Known about the structure:
Blueprint: H1 2-42, E1 44-56, E2 60-68, E3 76-81, E4 92-98, E5 101-107, H2 108-111, H3 118-139
Antiparallel strand pairs: 1-2, 1-4, 2-3, 4-5
Helix pairs in contact: 1-3
Amino acid sequence: MYLASEGLRTAAMAIGMLCLPLAVVVCVAVPDQLRDRRLRRRGVQADAVCVERIRTGSVVVTAIRCEFQPQTGGTVRVTVNSPVIPPEVGQALRVVYDPQDPKTASTTLRLHSNESRKTYIQQAVLVVLVATAVVLALLS
Length: 140
């Protein structure tokens, strides 16, 4: 009985150790998740023009700086995550922006992709791992 209890305790600790880095990833992603949720609810679509491709290193385009005109008028310049196939400078793309804060924007492709929903999956995995660790700790 003691060995089984010790094994459960060890398993609970191991799962708990796995939860820590996942919790950090989930917490870091929450602001983007909340922004995307807000944009899905009340966002307004607009045509934007790519004015700059932002690269990591020398090859991979990770972000796009673009300009668009919100309904209120004027021109807004924002930086959004790059779609899988980034537009060339001068090429059009669709963005969704918050009418209360036009600087808060994202591409329509990102909002409707699995990329913007992966945090929900990470949160579900974290909940399952924490629940498992708690149950194992209580059984030990």
